[in-house]
Specification:
Layout: H1 12-26, H2 28-39, H3 42-54, H4 56-64, H5 68-74, H6 91-115, H7 120-150, E1 153-155, E2 164-167, H8 169-172, E3 182-188, E4 192-194, H9 202-218, E5 229-230, E6 243-245, H10 246-255, H11 259-265, E7 269-272, H12 275-289, H13 297-315, H14 329-343, H15 355-364, H16 372-394, H17 405-414, H18 420-442, H19 445-448, H20 455-462, H21 470-479, H22 485-496, H23 499-502, H24 506-523, H25 529-542, H26 548-555, H27 557-569, H28 571-579, H29 590-593, H30 599-611, H31 618-642, H32 647-677, E8 690-694, H33 696-699, E9 709-715, H34 731-747, E10 758-759, E11 772-774, H35 775-784, H36 788-794, E12 798-802, H37 804-818, H38 824-842, E13 849-851, H39 859-873, H40 886-895, H41 901-923, E14 929-931, H42 936-950
Parallel strand pairs: 3-5, 3-6, 9-10, 9-11
Antiparallel strand pairs: 1-4, 2-3, 2-7, 8-9, 8-12, 13-14
Helix pairs in contact: 1-2, 1-4, 2-5, 3-6, 3-17, 4-6, 6-7, 7-9, 10-12, 11-12, 13-14, 14-18, 15-16, 16-18, 20-24, 21-22, 22-25, 24-25, 24-26, 24-27, 25-27, 25-28, 26-27, 27-28, 30-31, 30-32, 31-32, 32-34, 38-39, 39-40, 39-42, 40-41, 41-42
GO cellular component, one term: cytosol
Keywords: ATP-binding, Ligase, Magnesium, Multifunctional enzyme, Nucleotide-binding, Nucleotidyltransferase, Transferase
Domain PII-uridylyltransferase/Glutamine-synthetase adenylyltransferase: 303-441, 834-924
Length: 951
Amino acid sequence: MPAEHECPPELQPLFRERWQRWCEAAGEEVAREVGSLVAESSGGRRALARAFVGSDFFVGVCCRVPGLLPRLLGEEDLGLDVDWMRTIDEEEELNRALRRLRNQVTAEVIWRDFAGQWGIPRACARLSELAERCTGVALDWHHRNLMARHGEPRDRQGNPQSLVVLGMGKLGAHELNLSSDIDLIFAYPEPGETDGERSLENQKFFQRLGQHLIKSLDAMTADGFVFRVDMRLRPYGDSGPLVSHFAALEDYYQTQGREWERFAMVKARPIAGDEVFAGELMELLRPFTYRRYIDFSAIDALRDMKALIQRQVRARGLADNIKLGRGGIREVEFIVQSFQLIRGGREPALRERNLLALLPLLEGEGHLEPGVAAELADAYLLLRRVEHAIQADRDQQSQTLPREDEARGRLAFALGYGCWDDLMDALVAARGVVQREFDQVIAPPEEIAEPSAAEEWESLWGSCTAEDSREVNLDSLREAGFAPAEEALQLLADLGGARIVAALPSTARQRLDQSMPLLLAAAAEEPEPLLALQRVLPLIRSVLRRSAYLVLINENPPILAQLLRLCAASPWIAEQLAQHPILLDELLDSRRLLAPASREDIADELRREILRVDPGDLEAQMEALRHFKQSQSLRIAAQEVSGALPLMKVSDSLTWLAEAILQQALQLAWNQVTEKHGVPAGASAEDMHFAIVAYGKLGGLELGHGSDLDIVFVHDADPQGVTDGGRSIDNLSFYTRLAQRLIHILQTRTLSGPLYEVDTRLRPSGNSGLLVTSLTSFEKYQRESAWTWEHQALVRARPVAGSGRLSSEFGELRAALLCQPRDEQKLREEVVAMRDKMRTHLDKSNDQEFDLKQGPGGIVDIEFLVQYSTLAWAHKEPSIVRYTDNIRILESLIEAGLMSAQQAGQMIDAYKAYRSEGHRLALQQLPGVVNGDQFEAERKTVQASWQQILG
């Protein structure tokens, strides 16, 4: 036989013996056919040699099915057909057909793998498909059979019920290996009973159905088995009911689900049963599996599981087990699952079940270092190939490397290696990669870090409420720079003795006790340790009942330093984190936290966030918008206090953030209103015939932290037109409802608070006017009825969202309105009168203090000077209305020769100084009032300009 010479000399006798056995079973004619096929193909000879030497099971199947081997040589894929089994009448015949199909598919996978025709992903996908189809056809067969006896199971409302089968583990992830068990969970939607004469409760009906299904798959017969079925992952394991209804499952996982069960659910996938019911079940299970927050508590559970496995490895001598041993398959799975459970609640893409599909996603999101995903994938593929080859030999569930020389030689040859040492070299390298990354991701911090300075603070935290330790603790605090030390100790004692701390579960208390020494050590490194401690403790209190956040801090020491630095710099940041601890995630990557983003970056990131949310779930979309705003605002504030972003760029970033949110919120509002009423004639999602115009700080690109949005809505749709939906309304009603829906999305107080407070009083006729104005009406009002102060406001007006065409037309109208010739004397009188009125009611200045915004020579004086100059002189030089922000308008006045560079420059410098101090005070949550001695020079120059221009 030519294939014999493909084998090493020591394996040739084994090949000859197995070949002879097959020839006797196949007969001369089939043997000649195979001989002629392999004689013409070196690849066929090699595949035949490896399969016969590497798998006694394969040889046995080929002996029982003589025609299989020539088909494997002659065809690229034998396929997987089970539909014909649905017509089988007898259960015994069904079970025989399932087993024979299983044997054929398993044999084909072995052949294709050893021949190098299929990679591991395709081989595992075929085995998973086999399990899914066999389960599906057997479930349907037994369901029909039981229905014939007992009727159809129905809920209490009479709706038909179906058993849903969840495939867990490798089956759920399409990663099933040779000789693998299949882990299943059975569930049905609701209690009830069947509608036949021999009626059964649904629980009993589906329990019997599950038992019949398991028997068809698991029972050993003369033809073998289909799959060994493991039901221990169900609630309560072997002691729990075989089948549960959805509500019982939900209650179990919400009240009693354990961490290891979350890991199991990561790969859960419905493989049989009604698709609608299956979808409902997965939605019920998702909140248990994936937390809304970044959940570092999953790492502790992984470590516990891994420690248990390692004890088993040592106790049972499993060092050569390529699944459970160090650097084995399980460690690759743990690496991936840790990121899934920590971040999957916030990053839906990570809910992907397949490991090889997840690795590049993890690297792309920055969770793995560049290049690591490919290294882990290569290592994993080798480990899985070796696992398959071990199991292929006798169709036994083993992952242990052989110890006998002859078995090692067969394994190495079947996998295409020249000798055992070559295979071992590859395995050692692969397991080294896995072990390195596993330790990086999952090893406890104490195993990979130097002893921490926090150890010095453990006794202080432990004794902070003890009176006999008071003096020692005060000395420690004074020495570390906490001044006054009495206040610092009182803060700690208040927390340590708090009722909420005493009531904490043991796990949460342990996490707090681990966090506090770390926090004190980090606070001692700050310039003002007491201030840092004061500001971060409200956050600690807020997360005591969600102690997974404490794990995040414990697992990431750099986060704690960053956290204290930011909280010490700004109570606004500290308050945001205390109110929304989910924002702690933003501190994980300091490079991202402190890297300023462009307008395009912000808009693109928000689009990606919204795409991750179910388009039919408005509440989730609103929460996504709020979380995005909070996280971006935190980043911008962090960049400001760290000096990474200067004042002007801070306002730019906050403005770009608001613009991006307005555009997305408008799109959400459009989708909702058009779904209900249809689209106005001539309009579309690309051109809504609707635009949002920003005034004030948003219009002037000067938004601050916590600023309201001054906005006006305009449209240019046909006033006589109507929408094209089933519940058609006129165009004006449509755009009014669109604006109302948008305001609802922005202002509604969800769990995360409102997005922005919105002020629409700058629209024509203010609160008494229409919420949405046509562009024609807007122009008429501005030309015939608007007050001077409304023209002043128009200086800072610009479109920020909606129709690009309409926005352009509004821009042209704004320019035309601002460039109208005006009576300068009358304009001057009206501007001064308005300013005097504002100062009388709003200025908080006195002999000792200066109001940055309303005080003489302050921010509003500069704004009024800019607005007057624009309205008075734009008809002579239209270029000065190009921009809406004060600084660029002043620069335009210089370029147009309408204001001296010295005068405009002094106002620019004063304006920047005032706003910079105003931003600083806002982050400190202080009013915009400073000592009267500050900014004397700036105030004088502004007042001089006021006197010169406005008298």
